[in-house]
Amino acid sequence: MSSTRFLVSWVKRHSLMLLCSMVAAVMLILTGCTTSSTTVSTTPTTTTPPAQEAASLGLAALPGYTVTLFARQTSPYTNPDADLVVGSHVFIDYQNVTAKDCTDNKTSTIVEYNMDGTVVKTFAVPGHSDGLRVDPATGLLWATSCEDGNPKLVTLDASNGTITPYTFPPTPHGGGYDDLCFLNGMAFIAASNPNLNSAGVNVFPAIDKVTLRNGKAVLTPVLMGSATATDLTTNKKVTLNEIDPDSMTVDTKGELVLVNQAGSELVFLQNPGTPQQKVSRIPVGDQLDDTVWATSSQGRLLVVDSAGLIVWVSLPHFVPGAVYTEAPSDSGTGGFVGKVDLTTGFITPVVIGLTSPTGLLFVPSS
After folding, report:
1. What is the mean pLDDT of residues 92-116?
2. Which of 54, 154, 180, 181 could crosslink 133 through cysteines, CB 3.0-4.6 Å?
């Protein structure tokens, strides 16, 4: 194991031990409240202590972080995945029970909520939906489905429910397509579940630019799976191996960021899709999913746990530029939301107890 990954593991283990101690302390306090004969004040209160609120959801958070419930899955729609905030509305993508390669012809459900968690509308989209973004130019939602094969893409006009399908060409990498990201007037898409060559290397496009035209999704390669990049922890050139292109976002520098989930790294594209494109990466030592940047000191994280729980994570003052991520259940240390140190790749968990977090947004206060 490299020294970097050893330190990442050390930080995660000790942070998790701290949080587990917090859980034990909370449970001890709760037990004492229910079994002690000591007289306590009966003055009613409308405020739930932050630790108790998190514990009531089966979670624990570092001091300063507050966890509150936004919504839960219900029998009509289950297995939430992606989240999206457009204005004062929240959209959650529920995958239900669907095949990742679209071989069962079932549907996922996109649920539109108000900010207080009340349901506004629901929309059925084909297949195992996984990527959900909004086109800032048109206001249409884009949803991708079936990241393992036979991919699908639709646009959704949430104002009237119109769903328009688009057809992908045969995938050169053999898999499907996952997350989307809009940047500088272009749309980018992650080429997921790639076939690897005999050496275990992805030699196919890992990111494409996608344009919708006459019912078709037209793709232009932007980043190859075995491209050259600069490792930001060593400042040396390395050859990438994007074995698991997954989530995408934009950082506070305006760079496109790809999460190579099984490859345990973050990949940064400066000026993506242009002749001035530059690529760098940071190894993180664990499988990650959505990764986001705090863009303001005031805001909240919206966290989706695929087990059915959707919560807000708040902090009195976020540090603008701070990076938050999540580790799903198939990670070496899964079930947490953490803060990433981009100079080292170290991850410090801030919320634990989740089953498999798969959706994460930073939502600045209006």
Report:
1. 97
2. 180
The candidate with the shortest Cα–Cα distance to 144, out of 64, 49, 247, 295, is: 247
> Which pLDDT score, from 0 to 100, does residue 97 have?
96
Amino acid, res. 162:
T
Q: How many C-beta atoms lie closer than 10 Å to residue 298's C-beta?
A: 14
Q: Measure the CA angle with vertex 123, ends 76 and 171; round to 5°.
A: 105
Helices in the chain by DSSP H: which ranges? 3-35, 50-56
Q: Which two tokens stand for residue 217?
A: 């999704």
3-class DSSP assignment, residue 293: strand
Q: Which residues contact 48 (CB under 8 A, 6 or more apart)?
A: 56
pLDDT at 334: 85
Q: Compute how many other C-beta atoms are within 10 angstroms of the C-beta atom of residue 39.
A: 6
| 205 pLDDT more than 80 | yes
User: What does the pLDDT look like over 222-236, one tens digit per residue?
Assistant: 999 999 999 999 999
- Class at the top of the CATH hierarchy for domain 70-364: mainly beta
Global confidence as pTM: 0.87
In this prediction, residue 38 carries a pLDDT of 28
Write the CB contacts of 42 (distance below 8 Å, at least 6 apart in sequence): none
Alpha carbons 190 and 22: distance in angstroms, whole number: 38
Tell how strand 228-231 and strand 216-224 pair up: unpaired
Instruction: Please state whether 241 falls in left (phi above 0), alpha (psi between -120 and 50) or beta.
Output: beta
Give which of 112, 132, 234, 108 is closest to 182, Cα–Cα: 132
pLDDT value at 36 more than 80: no
What integer best gives the mean pLDDT of the chain?
89
